[in-house]
Write the structure tokens for this entry.
Amino acid sequence: MEVIILASAAEVGQLATRKVARTIQHKPTAVLGLATGSSPQAIYAGLAAQVRDGALVTSDVRAFALDEYVGLPAEHPQSYASVIRREVTEPLGLNPAHVFVPDGCANDLEGACQQYEAAIDAAGGVDLQILGIGANGHIGFNEPTSSLSSRTRLKTLALQTRADNARFFDHPDDVPTHCVTQGLGTIMDASEVLLLAQGTAKAAAIASAVEGPVSARCPGSVLQFHRRATLILDEAAAEQLTLRDYYRHTYANKPDWQRF
Ligand code: F6R
């Protein structure tokens, strides 16, 4: 894993935006994996600004969301279908026909999950998966003890996740109890992953994911097995990493040709 520690959340957003923009410039038909939530918002805003300025062309980009709540209709403002449309598809000018979100209202959820996996395969797989991490170590909505080789499926949200996401709803009880999420195995199939974390609330999860044992107890730790995983953190999210001076030294001495 490459661990990059930057002074502020704003710098995290800027560098991560550069990384994603470079992926799209290199491959205009790139397949992006999209996280929702607060962590990647600066990326989406940064890319949207580049598209507005004419510096980036996204018309051929394809995208797959990580997850969706079960039981929230797509029109609900907090469904991830709505969030992705509002924060990604429209501002980046993506073709809506090329943006996919798991169906959390399908009668046959299991069949819909299999179709989602098949659609990712048919697109040639995800080139760059954008991730946040939950305070409990989840990536996607793969809560602690998720199988490290899991595929897209139904999951029960952890109590902590429901409490953390209550900020998006009128009442904590309105947060759905279940979700459909890409599995850890699905995420691991992406050619490259980019995880962002900002703030002290993520510090323990980041320390477990990066320096802890690989364990389903901290689902993010599975990324230790990924060949191309980059984590971009602000100082607060990095504060429990015991090797943080090494990560800083490594990044400061990174050869120019490897930088993005
Ligand atoms: C969202 C997702 C989650 C979030 C995580 C962090 O699609 O898959 O894993 O990335 O819960 O959420 P924020 O970024 O809101 O702190």
